[in-house]
Write a structure and sequence with these properties.
The protein is built from 2 helices and 24 strands. By secondary structure, the protein is mainly β. A hairpin with a 4-residue loop joins strand 9 (116-119) and strand 10 (124-128). 33% of the residues are buried.
């Protein structure tokens, strides 16, 4: 992909005077490499009118469709924001690659950044809280609660809006940059915020292998099935006590009037890890375990997830596949799940 040379934008709204109202907030959110490079201006406060470049801006209450429409923002001439095109980058300020045969991520930063976060198609992870120019390291993703909250100056509502839009694109990396455009000076704006985000939508897998020391762990499938009682999404769990095992057993067999007896687990020497695939539209889905290993003192469960083929004959009813695995390690605090096919991280149990 060819990036345009970054130029300092001189976008100003000088001399914009509201005809009524006051106490407006303007948040400029610059999105780079996301459907082009665009500065989105979101106005908050009381409805009013502004003069901008010889044309009027009417700020009104209302709702608008579109993935980047923030519900509480005022409409700008009926649109969810005021948009301006920005110059792009000669080279991406941040580049991320998955590392083959590893759960680590290669992170390169050509400029200082704030948080760099990663969505793997299922969960959000933190790759770095900050970086400096020349940052080039292998990082282990840390699960992030709250998605884009805390990135730049995004409010919780703005974070949710962008998060939903980004998640629709699949695996994606978002890096907070220092704003590259000057403050837009608008008469009557009492509060101005600015956030700049660089988005990497194509996450490649590097040809370099990072192979940490691997120790095989004793493991055994305790039970599996396809009628668990869980929601639509994948779930990953650990049981390190009898009460935890009862909870997992009830999830696995909750659709049965009489579940089978609990397995005999010695929690002084072992734990149980579980994966629930979530509600599926038909039969033919399943989970298998390829191996369980200990890497850098953390447990990794490599799983095969099967799906019905286009010509498969399957049960035409909802299913919810699951698997419980006995692992020969007591008091497991975290277990990472990865795909047997490409070794990509697919989830984590804590």
């Amino acid at each position: 992909m060819r990036y345009l040379t970054v130029l300092v934008s001189g976008i100003l709204l000088a001399g914009c005077v509201p005809s009524e109202g006051s106490g407006l907030t303007l948040h400029d959110i610059a999105l780079y490499n996301y459907d082009g490079n665009t500065l989105y201006g979101y106005f908050y406060g009381e409805p009013t009118t502004l003069e901008f470049g010889g044309r009027g801006l009417e700020l009104t209450e209302g709702t608008s469709d579109g993935p980047l429409a923030v519900p509480s923002a005022l409409l700008v001439n009926g649109e969810p924001y005021l948009a301006e095109t920005l110059p792009g980058f000669e080279a991406p300020p941040v580049e991320v690659e998955r590392v083959r045969l590893s759960t680590e991520i290669s992170l390169v930063a050509r400029t200082a950044t704030g948080p760099v976060v990663y969505y793997d198609g299922n969960r959000w992870f933190t790759l770095a809280e900050t970086t400096e120019a020349g940052f080039d390291v292998l990082v282990r993703p840390r699960e992030r609660i709250g998605g884009l909250r805390g990135v730049g100056e995004l409010t919780a509502e703005e974070a949710r809006t962008l998060q939903r839009a980004f998640e629709a694109r699949g695996p994606i990396t978002v890096a907070a940059l220092s704003p590259r455009t000057p403050q837009r000076r608008v008469g009557g704006i009492s509060n101005y915020r600015s956030t700049a985000l660089f988005v990497q939508q194509d996450i490649e897998t590097s040809t370099t292998s990072a192979a940490p020391p691997v120790q095989e762990v004793r493991w055994e499938i305790v039970a599996s099935g396809n009628q668990a009682v869980t929601g639509e999404g994948r779930q990953f769990s650990i049981a390190t006590s009898q009460s935890g095992l009862v909870r997992l057993w009830n999830q696995a067999y909750g659709s049965r009037l009489t579940p089978p007896p609990l397995p005999d687990i010695d929690f002084r020497r072992e734990s149980v890890v579980a994966m629930f695939l979530g509600t599926q539209p038909t039969g033919g889905y399943g989970i298998g375990v390829r191996e369980v290993t200990l890497e850098d003192n953390e447990v990794y469960v490599t799983v095969d997830i099967t799906e019905p083929g286009p010509n498969s004959i399957t049960t035409q009813a909802f299913t919810n596949p699951w698997i419980l695995v006995r692992v020969g390690r007591p008091d497991i605090s975290v277990a990472w799940f990865r795909s047997a096919g490409n070794r990509d991280l697919i989830g984590v149990a804590r």
